[in-house]
Amino acid sequence: MLTYTLRRLLLSIPTLIFISLVIFLLLELAPGDPLADQPLTIPPEVRERMRAALGLGEPVYVRYWKWLVQFFWVEPRVMLDAWLGTAMAVGEQRIISWQFRAPVFDVIWQRLPQTLWVVGMAYIIGVLIALPIGIISAYRQYSWFDQIGTFVAMIGFSVPTFFTGVLLIVIFAVNLGWFPSIYDTTLRVTDWPSFVRQVQQMAMPVAVLALYNAAQISRYMRASMLDNLNQDYVRTARAKGMTEPVVVLLHVLRNSMIPVVTVIALGVPSIFGGAIITEQVFKVNGLGQALIGAIYANDLPMVQTLAFIFAILIVLFNLVADVLYGLLDPRIRYD
Amino acid sequence: MPDGATAVLAVNGLKTVFRTRGGEVHAVNTVSFRLRPGEVLGVVGESGSGKSVTMMSLLGLLPSPPAELRAGEVLFEGRDLTRLPPEALRRVRGAGIGFVFQDPMTSLNPVFTVGFQIMEPLRKHLGMTRAQAAARAAELLDLVGIPDPRARLRDYPHQFSGGMRQRVMIAIALACNPKVLIADEPTTALDVTIQAQILELVRDLRQKLGMAIIWITHDLGVIAGIADRVMVMYGGQVVEEAPVKRLFSAPRHPYTRALLGTIPHIRGPRAPRLRVIEGQPPILRAHPAACPFRARCAHALPRCAAENPPRFPLGGGHDVACFWDADTGAAREAAPREGGARHG
User: Fold this and answer.
1) Tens of pLDDT, residues A227-277
2) Chain A: nearest CA to B63, how far in angstroms?
3) Euclidean distance between CA atoms A25 and A60, whole angstroms
4) CB–CB contact A254 B112 (8 Å)
5) What count of other Cβ atoms lies within 10 Å of the Cβ of residue A92?
6) For B83, which DSSP code?
7) Reported confidence tier of residue B4, pLDDT bands at 50, 70, 90
8) Which residues of A121-151 are buried (b: 16+ CB within 10 A; e: fewer)?
């Protein structure tokens, strides 16, 4: 298992380098000018100098190489400096966002907590809701519980988050006034009232995303449980005189979790990607909003860095899913 | 037929119905039989004759819905299993009556070790500690002829071959020293040499442990080799029951005779085609009011379409549910024995 993991990690390096090249070239081909929003009164020669100052005068391969060096060599050392208090990367050129004129990673570190809190919490809650619903729906297939679960899952899955989000805002923020409609990033949780306010402002975006996640995962859970409930080994467990909780929650669930855990692990990178639309609706200035803003502003360093971080997370969690699969299913051998 | 007091398991008038969208299917129709301590009762019949469903109904192992036990009683250790509360019935399963299923490749849980699966009923029913259960599980694996049992407890089912898995299934069924072992086509999915090994093992275990065995199969060769008494089932009812020698030498039901006729012989001239019983077994939408075999029967009489034949005793533990008398080649005159008559 360890050698397999190491081999996969090594193999992911060329994959990621290829992905980085594709992202870089795609953005290079995309139309748009980072100086488009500068006043038209700027004379062309000044405009040229500004372009050169952003590094746009260099050939593509030079800019790609510099970005790679900054991403893999400079930025990790900056991070280590911040954590360990060393001074390895002082004065070195970092990846600079064109719109903020600040290092891209500083922006990411500012945006990450809100995204992790809101989207991550929604994912955890979604999973915690989805698993019992999926299990009960499968065990009592076609019961009223299953019918309602199927109906709610279909709504959660098919109604877009920008609709449910706005609906919740209209009901709970505008009419009832229970929750704020705008997420306040500057809120610091220091005491009980501020904690309550934090919970209040998280409630709606978390509810919207949790419904969406739960709808998806509960269907996987239900299907996987149904696959296993009719297996011969379930009859064997009953014939051994095991109680229904043991049969369902030990024998069946352990087998059913194998594909579901994979689905859950593969969904984790999307947490970091932020729920772009939901963050937009509730004005949570997380990573998703950062990406959208950067695309609007033609902030290429920001866009390609964020896109590449998402790519790394996806490759990484694919590996995590495969390793978990191997741990859960003794029939899988990786050596 | 021995009386109920000496039987370890007595089934009277068992009826099981499946409720499906297309209507009811009557899978078990008033089945009665007795199992004496230490004997091997063979149950034969083609696919869909109700053999497995009968045995699964005994322990409530059929999913309900769609299955529904309509009538009958199952007496085991002086209690009627059909009326036991679920908790008490669970204690009978595994502890009192062991079950071995047809396909050893899928009957074991793939994600748990073999040791865990054998120890589960030991810890549940006998209240053993982990260490006691592990020791007993190793003994059981040794008993069913698996070499190096202690080490193999930590292996997963996929690390065993088909025959070895069936041995593990037998070990699980035997774990709590059950009085009755129900083996539902345990050798059907295995190749012939492994089948012979499993038969040998069961014969041997029966000698050692003295339990009663119900052996379900559609392989008459297996029945001849292992059973003391044979019950032939068709259309969810018992059509003939006899000691094994008697059944093979003097079969009385046309269905049994046809079944025996389908066995190809290795001596003598080779038949150009294998003999078959023409037609399909019926799917019974209601309780049979006539003989379910009449459409495929060479000796069908007018009476067969009008009423369902009861089981006529022939003496010597032999009975047959047929209006046609194989000895005279004509309709049967004798009235059915009291109590053997079918109700419903």
Assistant:
1) 999 899 999 999 998 988 999 999 999 999 999 999 999 988 888 776 788
2) 9
3) 8
4) yes
5) 13
6) G
7) very low
8) bbbebbbebbbebbbbbbbeeeeeebeebbe
Interface residues from chain A to B (CB-CB < 8 Å): 231-233, 235-243, 251, 254-255, 258, 328-331
Check the CA dihedral B227-B231-B236-B239 and report its sign: positive
| Chain B residues within 8 A of A240 when measuring between CB atoms | 93-94, 120-121, 124, 172, 175
A102-157 residue pLDDT tens? 888 988 988 888 888 888 999 999 999 999 999 999 999 889 999 999 999 999 88
Concatenating the DSSP letter of every residue in A18-64 gives: HHHHHHHHHHHHS---TTTTS-TTS-HHHHHHHHHHTTTTS-HHHHH
Q: For residue A183, give both structure tokens.
A: 């997420």
Q: Please name the residues in contact with B36: beta carbons below 8 A apart, sequence gap of 6 or more.
A: B2, B6, B7, B8, B212
Instruction: Name the β-bridge partners of A299.
Output: none
Which among A230, A236, A243 is the top mutation candidate for probing chain B, defined by the most B β-carbons within 10 Å of its own β-carbon?
A236
Q: Which helix (H) or strand (E) holds B142?
A: helix B130-143
Strands B212-216 and B180-184: parallel
Nearest to B99 among A239, A251, A328 (CB): A239
Q: Which CATH class is domain A104-328?
A: mainly alpha
- Encoding tokens for residue B140? 């059981």
Closest residue by Cα to residue B186 from B217, B214, B160? B217
CA–CA dist A64, B148 (Å, integer): 61
d(CA A315, CA A327): 19
Residues B169 and A236 sit within 8 Å (Cβ to Cβ)? yes
Residue B103: closest CA among chain A residues belongs to which residue? Answer: A232
- Please provide the average confidence, as pLDDT, over all residues in chain A: 88
- Tell me how far the alpha carbon of residue B11 is from its chain's centroid: 13
Q: Where are the alpha helices (DSSP H) in A159-299?
A: 161-168, 192-229, 232-239, 244-246, 253-272, 276-282, 287-296
pLDDT tens digits for range A24-80: 999 888 777 777 777 778 888 888 888 887 777 788 888 899 888 888 888 888 888
Indicate if the alpha-carbon torsion angle A161, A163, A166, A171 is positive or negative: negative
**Rounded CA separation A270/A216 (Å):** 14
Annotated domain spans of chain A: 104-328
Q: Could you write out the DSSP letters of every residue in A186-212? A: T----SHHHHHHHHHHHHHHHHHHHHH
Query: Which tokens is B7 given?
Result: 């039987």
Look at residue B253 and give its three-state secondary structure.
coil
